[in-house]
Structures are given as structure tokens and as C-alpha cells.
Specification:
The protein has 183 residues and is an alpha+beta fold. The protein has four helices and nine strands; from the N terminus they run ααααβββββββββ.
Amino acid sequence: MNNSSLITVMLLAFTINSCGFERSPDTNKKEDSLTTKNKKSLVNLNEGANMDNPVVKSEEEWKKELTPEQYRVLREKGTERPFTGKFDEFFEHGTYYCAACGNSLFESETKYNSGCGWPAFAHAIENKRVKLQTDKSHGMIRTEVLCTRCDSHLGHVFDDGPKPTGQRYCINSISLDFKKKKK
């Protein structure tokens, strides 16, 4: 194996290990959250709703409400391809919400460009908005990030983020909805 092939293999291994890459059946498509099936934004639908109440639905109900790609990521714990999500290089001011239930998750002030191919946040709005659990899939041990309100898969958190938290919440764009901050 020559040096350039070895470097390529090493970079691929780094991407798989640090960002939790999993091949998507949908190759390079940037999918708008909740718009593929012409759905209204859950952010607007849930304004005024009690976000502390858990959302419990059957998998059939989730399949009717989410796009196939959203269902694969949010409910089946999939991962979108790196550098394809609409929020990867997106830096508007506002709040990011769970695309499945409208739970507010991250503020734009905590978002940064980690270069890993997925939106990265230094921390959640508050700890009760997300829950963390051990993920031993794909031959790795990682920390999975789930929405506390609907138990949907959002992504993973790693301990290689910026100070002061040192955390990188590596979140799938398709798991998020966004509402711009009013001026």
C-alpha cells in the first residue's frame, strides 16, 4: 500500500470513528426538514404547547408524520451522510428544535464549525432537553444524544469540543428544525 492510499484509509477511519458515519441509502441529497411531505413546521405547530409532556406515538404514527429519511434517522437511529445536511454550514441566529416533536434543543450561539460534516453544538439549551445513553453499535462505544420529549435519535456527543464544556454535540441536520430569532 502506498503512502497516499494509507493516508486515505486513515482519514476514512477517523471520519467513521469520530463522527459516527453510517452510509445513507439516500446519497447526496440535502433534505429540508419536514418539507419533503409538505408538512408544516412542528416549531410553529407546537408554539404554546407544554414541552414538558412526553410525546408517545406508535411507529406507524411516526412513519405517517416523518419523511422516510427522517424516520430512518430519528426513529431507527440512522445517520445522514456527512456534509449533506442543510444545517452543517448554516449559521443564522435562532433556536434549533427536534424535527419530530418541536422540543427546543440548541441555541445558535452554541453552534460552531467543527469540520466533521454535521452541525456541532457546545451544549444543549439545558440538560433536561436531551438525554445521553451509551451506544455500542457499529463496533464503537459512543454517547448517543436523544430528545427527552419524544425519545428520537439526534446524533452523538464527543469530548473533543471547545472550552468551556469540551463537548461536541454532533447532530444530524434532518433531526432538527430551526426558527430564526426575531429582531
